[in-house]
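Contributing: when you submit paired examples, paste them exactly as shown. First protein:
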Amino acid sequence: AVVSTQSTGGDGTTSVIILAGELLKVAEPFLVENMHPTVIIAAYRQALEDAIDMMRNEVAKSVDTSDRDEMIKIIKSSLGTKFMKGWNDLACGIALDAVKCVHLEDKGGYKEIDIKRYAKVEKVPGGSIEMSEILDGVMFNKDVTHTGMKRRIENPRIVMLDCNLEYKKGESQTNLEFMQETDFRKILQLEENYIKGICDDIIALKPDLVLSEKGVSDLAQHFLLKAGISAIRRLRKSDMNRVARAVGGQIVHRTEELKESDV
């Protein structure tokens, strides 16, 4: 019950424990009288339906979600018992703004608020609680793969990849035997041509930034740097999903499938 309450509401876990204990306590006399458990469970379910009906028709009231002051009051009722009580105004404002950032409504009127996937709490050592703020965007602690790549880009064209920008290794142990010195050069040339091919697929779309969930080889960094493209590698899947949601792009699994609409 506690896990379910925490995952759905995020609050009221202590109350749920006390309430569940009292409900079980009430059932004890009936168990002593050898009443069948299914009868007791049926009574609990009927009580649940009555409670929901009463809450819906007699207790609950409509709330205007566009009224910031009204929403802040509701959030305060939850945060009032928590450690953040001393910073209620700051915490409530951040919570409301975070939900508004991930709120999505399509043309059909369907609303989606997925704070688990698209809202992230990033903890930075140092500072004070008053320095906490909401960032209308995506933040992750990663640096570009090459020191010569640009770190500040305004309004970039972004390509998101779920594939390696390096030579594909064998899934099992692979042995190569070379009879001549030129054979080894041919293998190296094949690897270089492969990397150049996937980089050319990316460069053709003229992006400013490449984000990859996998690795980016030194050779790929060289080709991207020459084209003036910055690259960040080994991003988490969750971070990539947030970037895709924020910029409206698509995560692509193969570079040859890249098209303008994915940028």
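Second protein:
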Amino acid sequence: MRRLAYSVVNRWQACTKCKPIPQQVSMFNINSFGSTVRRFSQRHSQDKKTLTMMYNEALETRPVITKAIMTAVIVGSGDVICQVAIEGHTSLEKFDWGRLGRMMIIGATLIGPTLHTWYGFLYQKLPGSGLAISVKRVLLDQFTFAPVFPVIFFTALFALENKLGVLKDHLKNNYVDIVKTNWFLWIPAQLINFTFIPPQHAVMFANFVALFWNAYLSWIGHKNDNAEKSEPIVQSHDSK
């Protein structure tokens, strides 16, 4: 390979009527270029590792804040998906920025810290690994925590939106469907989570699954609002 590179360089120099460069000088330039490429590649790899290390360090030193920020972003992303892809609010005028902010506040102050505490309890209550332990965690999670948390979530959401008066009717009309949908999505997801995902990353994995779950919750929580906005305004005329 070195002889081939040396030959190519000297042939090019011969064609351009230049004096051939000694082999050691040519090979020095070629080797220097290769070293530069390798150093750039190693530095880029180190930068990627540094980002991962920074995130893991944040999980170790500030787990609640880190998970709260991550959850706020995921919950907000779910609301964006709901508003744009499901409800068709593609223009800036139709997009509800206040609703996005409220969803992110709930993600940061309620969902993230709650999941951090709950998963810590699960791993403390049911330590170890293996399929049997994972199944026990899923059963405890889905039949104690999961049926209760939607009530807490919608209470917080409706309180921020100043419509607690319709909370009872909303839960009466939607609660059963919410729990069924929750089981359909979260039982297999949590089985994967508790079996294969390290405990420190359990909330992050759950949040990525929750990207779709939060879009669903946002739609359920605001479908009546969208229906009211879409109803035509009927003007009444007094009969003469």
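If you have annotations for the second protein, write them as plain sentences, like these:
The two ends are 101 Å apart (CA to CA).
Residues 102 and 161 are 8 Å apart (CA to CA).
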